Amino acid sequence: MRELGIVMAFSRTRIAASFNELGWSVLGRDCATPGRPTDILARLLDLPQRQGPEVTMRQWRHVELPAILRIYQQNAGRFVGPLARGEAYARWLISRGAFDSIIVALQGNDRYDLHETTAKIVGYCIQSGNRVLEVMADPDYRGLEQEILARVCAEAIENDRQELVYESSPTDPLHQAVVGPVADEQPGCRTVPQDRMIVAKVFDPQELLTTLAPTVARRVAAAGIREAVELGFDNDQFRGSITVTGGQEPRAAAVHPGRVGRSYLKIADDEFARLLLGQCDPLEATTAGRLEASTQMAQKLAEQLF
């Protein structure tokens, strides 16, 4: 990976401690909830149903990939992490067979249409075997995810599948519909046996910071900070800072290797990677002793920007 100039790498593993010993950061675990399709469907039908125009569902067509990506982008703000799924990446996923089925939900007259003029795609579901990998809907159709999952369950029942595994964010309320009422479980999420941890390794923190710089500039503006800011980092992997200009929009951000500045974070390498990848709560890390801010301003900036 170093020879190829890789900036960072991700993996899922059941031996996260071994990866951590080799300098990888442990980000979290897959949230995958197993359930019987008949039970899931019964619970979904008992929930309050969505109000709004009816939709139809069918298998996707390749020309509909831009519409699926549009819905993905409409939902991407809810996620953490640096990966943006562009069209090239999505087509790579398709070419490598990363899924078995994509169901799309449409509102309108479903005719073969390259530009969604008669039937607008408002949601989709990606499956691989009995795993439900991704369910998303247009934000204007809140609650449509529930209907899409119900359709998936109905098809699973027709095909005599005895189990579905629903994979999503731990905060997704549909986990509860999948698992049902279970005592002494973490609310909303139950991991499958032999659950896998997600680990990451940052090989080039300066390049990663440079890539994140425009995002950091937008976060400074969103936080209502008008003046120029500088936040430094001091760890074995990287000593330097990121600055954001003051004044009017658009704000510009730049990375300065070797210049830590007055307000900086002294942070271990694995926690530094977690911070850049949106997986570190700076306040919690400071309380736990994994992060030390040189000034109150450094602590405040860490919480606002990461």
Task: Explain what you see.
The protein is an alpha+beta fold. 32% of the residues lie in helices and 25% in strands. The chain is built from ten helices and 14 strands. It has helices at 16-21, 37-46, 65-75, 87-95, 144-158, 174-179, 205-222, 269-276, 282-287, 296-305, and strands at 8-13, 25-29, 32-35, 56-59, 101-108, 119-128, 131-137, 164-167, 197-202, 229-234, 239-244, 253-257, 264-267, 291-293. Strands 3-8-7-6-5-4 form a six-stranded mixed sheet. The chain has a five-stranded mixed sheet with strand order 12-11-10-13-14. A three-stranded antiparallel sheet has the order 1-9-2. Helix 2 runs antiparallel to helix 5. The longest helix is centred in the last third of the chain and has 18 residues, at 205-222. Residues 183-188 have low confidence and may be disordered.
Rg result = 22 Å
Q: Name the overall outline.
A: globular
End-to-end Cα distance, whole Å, is 26 Å
How would you classify the helix and strand content by structural class? alpha+beta
Q: List low-confidence stretches.
A: 183-188
- In helices, the fraction of residues equals 25-40%
The chain-level mean pLDDT equals: 88
Largest beta sheet: strand ordering: 3-8-7-6-5-4
Summarize it:
This protein has 306 residues and is an alpha+beta fold. It has ten helices and 14 strands.
